[in-house]
């Protein structure tokens, strides 16, 4: 986790931009602008819509990355948005991760994998890469610095990721107290020893990372703790002194800078806060968009709006956290 913490310190900005494109978030003229280019590259007409969206997603992502790369330390692409488009979408996911890494950003792959045994070990190649290159080093097709992991299969489902992260100098973030409303159906259940399910998972996470604590005092095994649960997040901060938090739920889901402040430690470290739609969809709230815009003009609006939203988030977090 040291590299992420140092990137946050360099930017004085504990925020991460979620790159979760959907057809509704990409200006339609951007999608339309790739019709001719993509038509010549697909083998059948049925492939055209997905391929066209995939190319548009990459151009959209690249525009946002360029707009915020000097402001934020990290990006978090959600792989589901890309897998929904099939192979073309997966290609764009890896291209997006690679492009972000080339711009010096920490790349957190939101893949939420969860399985056991050989399957978990296979998923962990998101971190360790693919062996067998000519120089003996693993080939990394994913270009991720960390991934999110689902813990509900227990230690068997986590150990392969911890081992891969340690070997590759990367990190994982384990779901603990998530921001979605129905999370309480499982995470708030009472256990026989008086703890809640999420508290037990928190204790496991702290233990899973115990052997990987870095120079900044945090392990390679982070926790996902939603901004929509500020009191529980504050308690988890005290309960998990060596666990770095990824905090979703800021902005569009209702979380504020004040809500997340208690999830940071006394030095203003220990957490990074995610905003997705609030930044990548900021252009839709400006009132400046017009259907008559060219694709380049629309992307210019996307860039300017994303940059301003990222700056606003940074400034709000600085006031709340670096107090």
Task: Report strand order across the widest sheet.
Answer: 1-2-3-4-5-6-7-8
Main pleated sheet: 8 strands, parallel, barrel
Order of helices and strands: HEHHHEHHEHHEHEHHEHEHEHH
Cα end-to-end separation: 23 Å
Shape: globular
| Average residue pLDDT | 94
Class by helix and strand content? alpha/beta
Portion in strands = 5-15%
Protein model, in words:
The chain has an eight-stranded parallel beta barrel with strand order 1-2-3-4-5-6-7-8, surrounded by six helices. β7 (245-247), α13 (257-260) and β8 form a beta-alpha-beta unit. Helices cover 46% and strands 13% of the residues. It is α/β, with parallel strands linked by helices.
Features:
globular; alpha/beta; 8 strands; 8-stranded parallel β-barrel; 323 residues
């Amino acid at each position: 986790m040291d590299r992420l913490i140092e990137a946050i310190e360099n930017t004085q900005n504990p925020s991460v931009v979620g790159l979760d494109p959907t057809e509704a978030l990409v200006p339609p003229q951007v999608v339309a602008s790739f019709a001719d280019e993509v038509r010549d590259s697909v083998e059948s007409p049925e492939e055209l819509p997905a391929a066209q969206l995939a190319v548009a997603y990459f151009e959209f992502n690249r525009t946002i990355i360029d707009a915020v790369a000097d402001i934020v330390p990290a990006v978090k692409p959600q792989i589901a948005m890309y897998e929904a488009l099939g192979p073309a979408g997966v290609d764009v996911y890896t291209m997006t991760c690679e492009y972000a890494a080339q711009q010096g950003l920490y790349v957190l792959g939101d893949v939420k994998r969860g399985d056991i045994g050989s399957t978990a070990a296979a998923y962990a190649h998101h971190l360790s890469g693919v062996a067998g290159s000519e120089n003996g080093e693993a080939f990394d097709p994913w270009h991720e610095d960390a991934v999110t992991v689902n813990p509900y299969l227990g230690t068997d489902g986590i150990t392969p990721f911890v081992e891969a992260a340690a070997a590759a100098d990367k990190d994982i973030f384990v779901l603990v107290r998530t921001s979605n409303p129905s999370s309480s159906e499982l995470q708030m259940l009472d256990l026989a020893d008086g703890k809640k399910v999420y508290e037990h998972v928190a204790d496991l996470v702290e233990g899973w990372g115990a052997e990987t604590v870095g120079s900044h005092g945090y392990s390679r095994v982070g926790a996902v703790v939603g901004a929509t649960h500020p009191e529980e997040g504050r308690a988890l901060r005290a309960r998990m002194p060596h666990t770095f938090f990824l905090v979703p739920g800021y902005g569009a889901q209702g979380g504020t800078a004040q809500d997340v402040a208690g999830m940071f430690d006394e030095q203003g470290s220990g957490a990074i806060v995610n905003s997705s739609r609030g930044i990548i969809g900021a252009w839709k709230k400006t009132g400046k968009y017009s259907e008559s815009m060219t694709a380049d003009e629309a992307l210019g609006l996307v860039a300017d709006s994303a940059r301003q939203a990222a700056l606003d988030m940074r400034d709000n977090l600085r006031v709340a956290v670096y107090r």
